[in-house]
TrEMBL record:
This is TRAF-type domain-containing protein. It comes from the Eukaryota. Residues 193-220 form a coiled coil. The keyword Coiled coil applies. It comes from Reticulomyxa filosa. InterPro entries: Znf_RING/FYVE/PHD. Gene3D superfamilies: Zinc/RING finger domain, C3HC4 (zinc finger). Keywords: Coiled coil.
Amino acid sequence: MSDMKEETMNEKHQSGVVPFFFEHSCFDKNWVLRLNSSEQINHFICLICKQVANSPVEINCPQHENMDETLIAGENCLKQFLNNNPHACPVQPHDGCEYYKMKPMQRLINDLIVMCPRQFQQDLQTLEGNEEGQTHGNTAVICSFKGKIKDLKGHLDNACTLKLSECWFKSFGCDYSCLGHGLDTHLNEKMKHHFDLEELKQLQLENEQLKMQIDLDKKNNMKKY
Ligand SMILES: [Zn+2]
Ligand SMILES: [Zn+2]
Ligand SMILES: [Zn+2]
Ligand SMILES: [Zn+2]
């Protein structure tokens, strides 16, 4: 049991807290609590990871059907648990754990309003920074997204201001990347640098063309004689 706990913890660590957790694993409770009261999510807590269940299932083995509380787990958490403990159930050791998907609850969870998880992550980091006596000034990019969990993926892939954007001149050799609107500033400030890169690339290209031309000429000359 304690091994299991450690594994879920490690996994959470590997994936980082941000985009990643909504694909399969349960949702960070502290993040959901930013815009919801604990009464709202009390019934959605995964009994394995203690976070808000993603794709909730109810465990309803006949072995403990007399238990009062509803036994909710995130589907992924439960599957992982059963993989690691084939002859157990998260409630008590017995074979053949039985469960079913709770579609209506899934809908409720998907409709929970949450803040941008990247912003949440940034807030946490700022908080840690402040505790160490650092101030970040007000240059930080802010994502003010508030929306349903089910709309999150679209937000993170498209509209999120905390999404990393790469410089348009990447193919010319500029490695700059930044958050949100910072790219505009970069493009304005580094115009000369980018033109130089372009020019360099152009020169390289012309150089190569010239070389090819010379090679071609050589071949043609050889043919002549
Ligand atoms: Zn879970
Ligand atoms: Zn059971
Ligand atoms: Zn965002
Ligand atoms: Zn650039």
